[in-house]
Amino acid sequence: MIQKTGIFLGKAMSEDQVHQLADHLSFGNMKSNPAVNAESFAQKERERYGLPDEEDLHFLRQGETGGWRKDMTQAVADRLDAWTELRLQGTNYDLHVRDKIHALEQDVRDHNVKEKN
Asked: Which terminus of the chain has fewer Cβ atoms in its 10 Å neighbourhood, N or C?
């Protein structure tokens, strides 16, 4: 994908540059990047509202498709979807995004199973 993006942008990259960029863009490196996790903003908001520091609180959390299911019950997800649908009425926003996300998550799971075999 990096090579394809480079070609699209008209940028030639050596194999070493591709590997360096892939490492830089890896989930582990992105998760530990303070800018990606908006750590300074989060710290200001914690101070503003008197909230405790939480070391494991990051914008990028697990790097797993559907990982939210570990932290959120289906009932809470349904309430969030209903709230979102109510707030988006009349905006012409595609409210079937959740169905598309579930389909994409299943595609990723299927792909991962195929790669393991």
From this structure: C
Give the CA-trace dihedral at 100, 35, 37, 51, to 10 degrees.
-140
Q: Are residues 37 and 24 in the same domain?
A: yes
Domain extent, residue 90, equals: 64-117
In angstroms, the Cα distances linking 104 to 56, 65, 80, 95 are 27, 9, 20, 16
> Do 69 and 88 lie in a common domain?
yes
Find all residues with CB under 8 Å of 109, minimum gap 6, and list them: 65, 66
**Quick one: 3 and 55 in the same domain?**
yes
pLDDT tens-digit readout, 39-54: 888 888 888 988 888 7
pLDDT digits (tens, 9 = 90+) for 6-35: 899 999 999 999 999 999 988 888 888 888
Same domain (yes/no): 111, 78: yes
90: exposed, middle or buried (Cβ count in 10 Å: 0-12, 13-18, 19+): exposed
